[in-house]
Write a structure and sequence with these properties.
alpha/beta, 156 residues, five-stranded parallel β-sheet, homodimer
Chain lengths: 156, 156
């Protein structure tokens, strides 16, 4: 049984996430996903969707066996507990695979780190693209409505 | 083999969609989902995510066997082709179940129409809630940045 671990924020789900998770799952028999904690996301604006909702949506995706929240203080703790054969990195995760492998080895793990390629076959392949499209439309709406009318122009 | 059909826009995925699809799937053996076409969404602002991307994300959810795009002119055509035992309605779909059953019966289908309850256990259970949170943050950012600086403040 080859266990694979993927990690990420997974804010607003899109086909780039799905590609990363499918490719990760194909490397083994079961895919676990570690979801970044709201409090630990400091290198970019905090996600729109709260951590537990991000976790449950990722776990609903077919390639994923189980999604868990990361640790608040020790990012390696869930990795030690899952003890995966493979960890996959998304195209925009700024870890060096070799350095990460050596760090894991020092903690007693023989884990291979694999970089998954980017996916660019859809128009909205990042949460940022989706957020920016929402803002673009909202700004366009505001230019066409009376001052004082704050309807968002967006629905279900 | 009991075939269930669910329908909807499924713009930005959230736990309300997931609840609707899980509850629908539990009524039978295989769940097909008909995705509303971009061109046919006139009763609310057009979705942020294009139809093919909405389709592929819904099909990636575990309860869903297959997701297909609706027909551009005849909403009953894919239903006739799938010939489901059950059609489910989401809590915000404004069909009357009895009238829909009778309409389907006139087209030769013995299809039961079931209303699925609302899901309110997460903070963002509609695409509109998510869109409005994005806009709220963007507006808050704009009030705190210099005129002429158009950074969105949003990332992956």
């Amino acid at each position: 049984m080859i266990r694979v671990v993927a990690t990420g924020t997974f804010d607003i789900l899109h086909p780039g996430h799905l590609w990363y998770l499918k490719e990760s799952a194909q490397l083994g028999d079961e895919l676990y996903v570690i979801i970044a904690r709201d409090a630990n996301i400091r290198h970019k604006p905090r996600p729109v969707i709260p951590e537990e909702q991000r976790r449950c949506m990722v776990e609903a995706l077919r390639p994923v066996a189980k999604a868990i929240l990361g640790d608040l203080t020790d990012m390696y703790r869930p990795i030690r507990e899952l003890n995966p054969d493979i960890i996959t990195l998304g195209c925009n995760q700024h870890f060096n695979p070799e350095i990460l492998e050596r760090t894991l080895e020092k903690q007693g793990m023989q884990t291979k780190v694999v970089r998954i390629s980017a996916f660019t076959n859809s128009p909205f392949t990042s949460s940022r693209d989706i957020v920016q499209e929402v803002i673009r439309r909202s700004d366009a709406m505001k230019r066409h409505i009376e001052p004082g009318d704050h309807s968002s122009g967006c629905d279900e």
